[in-house]
Structures are given as C-alpha cells and as structure tokens.
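User: Run a structure prediction on this.
Assistant: Running it now.
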Amino acid sequence: MAGILPSPMLTGPSPIDEPRQDSAVRLPLRSTVVELLLGSVVAVLVSMVLQFAVVRLGISEPSFAPEALAALGAALVLTVLFGLLAFGHRRSPRWLRLGGTWVALASFTTLALAIPLQSTRFYFGGSSTDNAFRMQFMTRMASTPGLADMNYAETAPYYPGGWFWLGGRFANLLGWEGWAAYKPYALAWVAVTSVVAFTLWSIVLRRRLALPAALATTIAGMLHGIEEPYAWPSAAWMAPVAVLAWYALRREDRAPRWTLVCVGVYVGFAAITYTLHFGFAVLLIVTMAVVIGAFRVHQGQPLWPTVRRLFLRLLPIGVVSALIALLVWLPYLLSTHFLLDNPRSAAQHYLPRDSAFLPMPMTEASTLGVLCMAGLVWLLLRCRRNEVAAAMLTMVIAVYCWFGLSTLALLAKTTLLAFRLNVILGVVLATAGVLGLLELVGYLRARLDARYALRISTVAFALGLLGAVTLTQGAIGLSLKGGTDLAYEDYYPTGDNAMGHRDPEKPGYWAGAVFRTVDQLTGRPPQRNILLSTDYKMMSFRPYWGFQQETPHYANPLADYDERAAEVKRWSQARDSGELLAMLRESRFAPPNVFVLRNPSGEDTEHAGKLSVELKGDSFPQQPNVRDYQVYFDAAVFDSPEFTKRVVGPYTVIARR
C-alpha cells in the first residue's frame, strides 16, 4: 500500500478528488470481480481460523480478560494498518499489498468481536428479543434446502431470507444446528463486509484512501450496526455504491455498463437481505437522478432528452436488481398476486425514541461525534467540486428525508422504521470525516514549509491511531457490553448457559427436557411438528413449526396473526375434549399437534387449575408496541385418549396421538 502520508521530501498529496485518469472508476471490471471473490474467501478463512483459535482461550466469565485481549489484539492490528498507511511504499508486489490488507481487515474485526464472545455459543444479544427470531430463521434454513417462512408451515416467506439461506448452507457444511452456526456465520460476514467495503471504496477512491475509508466504515459499524449482521453488509456498502451511482448518472458521455450492473447487483442484494435498505437505496438512486436532471435542465439542457438519458441509465439498475430480488420474493409475490392482494403487515409498527427524534451524531460529545462533525463540514465544503462528497451529502439528506417521511407515515398508522438508518448515517459521516481530515493533512503539508512535513505526518499518524483505538475500545467495552452480557446469561437448549448456571427458576433450564418430551410423545422429527407454545424460544433451537409467532411484528402477514390469536381464544372456550378436538379438525389453519402450556400458578386464584399460553397483540404507537395477555385452557379438555401429556417443570406438554 502506498503511504497515505507522503515522504517528507514531497509537498503533500493532491486533493482526493483530483483524478489520475479520465474516469472516476479506478478498478476495471475484471479486477473488481476477482478482488471481491478472492477477498471474500480470504476474509472467511481468516475469520474462521481466528474464531476456532479464540474459543480455545477458555476464560471463565464474568471477567474483563476477554475485553482486554480483544482491545490489545485490535490495537496491534490497527497499529500495523496505520503504519502501512503512513510509511508503506509501492515497491511491494500488488498481490502482497492486497492480501495483507484483506488479512488485516478480517483479523481486526474478528479479534475485536470474537474474543469477548470466546466462551459462549451465542452472538451479541444471546437468544433474547430480536435474536430469537434471527436464530429461528437460521434454524429453519438449516433444516430445509429451499426458502421457507421462519415460523408458519406452508406459507410463502415474507422476510427476505437470502442471508439466512446461505447461513443454512453454512450450518450444513459444519454439521451444526442453525442456532449454533449463527455466531460464527455472523462474525465471518462482518469480516467479509470490511474486505468488500475496501474493494468497493477502491473503485471510486485511490487505494491509499480506500483503506482508511473501509476502516472508518468498520469501526462505525462496531459502534452501531453489527448487532444485525444480516443488515450490516448493505449498510456498510451503500456509501461507495452511491458514489459509483452518482458518477454513472452524472457522466455526460456513455457510462460504463458494468458500473450500472454493479449498482443493480447491490440493490438486488439489499432486496434479498434487508428490505428497508432496499427501499432506501431505491429512493436514494432515484433522488440522485432527479437532482442531476434538475441541475442539467436548470443549466439549459432540454428536458425530455435529459429525462430519457437518465431513465436509460436507471433501467439496467432496475432490471438487474429486480431479477435478483425475484430469487427470494417470487413466492410471496405469487401468493399475493403481485401485491394486489397483500395483507397489512405490523412489521413497521414500531416507534422507539431513536425514530421520534432526528439523529444528530455530529453533536455528540465523543470521538465519533467530532469525526462526524468533521465529515459534515467536509461534505458541505467539497460537495460542489467533489463527486464523492456530493454523493455522500445526498445520502445524508436522503436519511433525514426518510425520517420526515416516517413521521408523516404516522398519519397512516405506520412508520418507515427510520431509526434503522442511523447506522448508515453514522457510517457516511464517519467516513467523510476521515476523508476530510486526510485532505486537511495534505493541505497543511502543501502550505507549510517542507521541513514540517515529517512532523505533520507523525502527528496525523498518532492522532489517527489514537482515535481508532479509542473508538474500538468504546465499541468493545460500552456499545456491545449489553449484547455480550446476554450472550453469556441466556440459556442454551441444553438447560444451562455459558457460565454454567442451571437455575430451575429460569425457563431455559427446562428446554432440554421439553425437547426430549416432545420427541418422545410425538415420535416425529421436529420439522413435522406444529407447536402452540408459551415458550417461543423453542422454535429458535429446533425447526418446529409454530402455530403462532411470538409477536405480530415478526409474523408473516399471509398467516393472519389476529385470526390465529382469535382461534386460540376460541379453543380455550371448549367445554370438553370432544369439542376441542372438533374445533381443531375444523380449523381453517393447520392445527398444532403439540401444546406446550404453562402450569397453573398458585398465586392466580382466578384461574386456578388452568393451563395458559401467552399471546401478544399490537399496541402501536404505544411504547412498548406489544401487549401481553394470557389465554387459559381448562386442563380437563385434554383428558382424552387422543391426547397424551406429561408435566415438565413449569410446563405441561400435550401431544395429539
């Protein structure tokens, strides 16, 4: 890698927008494809090797030792990277520079994230809240070669399963259950994301700038983003793809076709992994086209030829992305007659504090806040002469527009989940801050006496490394701390957790016994059972089908969540087993063949002797956005030869013969 801080004998770097060639695209198609493929393979191999080494540390929790080792390992890798950036030279073979960069980026992310999780099988967040659904999706995909809904049998999948489908194949390759493969798979993807970000930035920036841009992206994601590993790639890659799209749309002469295809591939990737980023990417690219067209018409170019030219450049992006999206979305589109009969979804019925107020990361009193403020200033100062700054500033404006649209959507009793774009905003501003500060270093070296060049380089190196280490330590010790704690505290399906705790008062303690009981009572493999369970984590660890999803917000709209809840309520009103069996046979839904109900509580005198199942209802826009309620069954309705039952701790497991 050429040094980003030049030799003291030079006057300093040129502005980052000064082209070396008559094109903003700095990598040809063949090099781009080769680097994306080889870089991803190297990242996966490095990450997996380091992960398998890390799990052998065997440090007992609770302890700060893993965090200390993670911080030290990350700091050492950062020191090497900054040393190469500051004092590297072009004489090394190109393959060595590239390979070293890939290995360093993959090592940095894996060491920083895997060491804190060294003695748990869970990823950040454990099996709690949203992670329960992600693990359920992984478990489902590991049990089937095709796409399927995470919960409902014989229902076209609603949530895009591209990332999880590949995760299922990863689990099959390792011979692990889906939930167990989630952590190494997620960590490998974080490593791949960093390496691919470097390649994508190399398309639109010089190599010596692409690496710090990729580092800034990675560190910003570690602070806010990697908790959703299936959404992180599309968030991390959006900025360089947006720059490429801006260049392709703005170019006066014919734009290279492969750049349009590349943008289309990214948009299609977002469509099969994270729908929100797909929608935002579409809005962003269309907005860019409108802005560019408006400026050209304002400068006197004819309207319709301008519209036609931009449309013909948007067309291949749309065609390529649509073809990729159909790989995942076609079953759902067919089930809804191409959205003409699309049921209303509760997925967007969520308004946390982060969505209620506009994000202002640049005003935070932190290292990241200073970096984001520097990025905003650079974007505003350079947007008129720098395509990179113009594209990134358009992204920032688009994020705030999305927040505005999300607020207006409240009038239609929904949202656009705007808080999920905070990650993208942070990545864009942090990366812009790095580019701006590097340009400032070049400016100072050019303006000051050459005798100060080495001092400027040294100070910039030290401050940059200090800032990177500070942000990384903040991510390890603060931002990810809550998720790390859950990863150690939550229970495995074996009835214990990573710290060896086995507390009978915890529902997870009974998981293994419940699984064995279901197997014994039904004699079926898990994927042939439909459960109505008050413990929804069962579906995270075994590929059972659920009669009902835990919350309406993760439920497939084709499954009729409210009607299913009403059906359960109707079953609970059966007077005897014969009436219940008749209701089950006549149900319009495939009925459960296994019930996992909670035993009566001695404190609940009103429902003494009754079994219960917990259901949830949508309470949007209230916070929390769900309300819990219990549905009670008279235990006598299961007194029939057609039912077999067994008490397992706080649960009664009932199976239909």
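The two ends are 68 Å apart (CA to CA).
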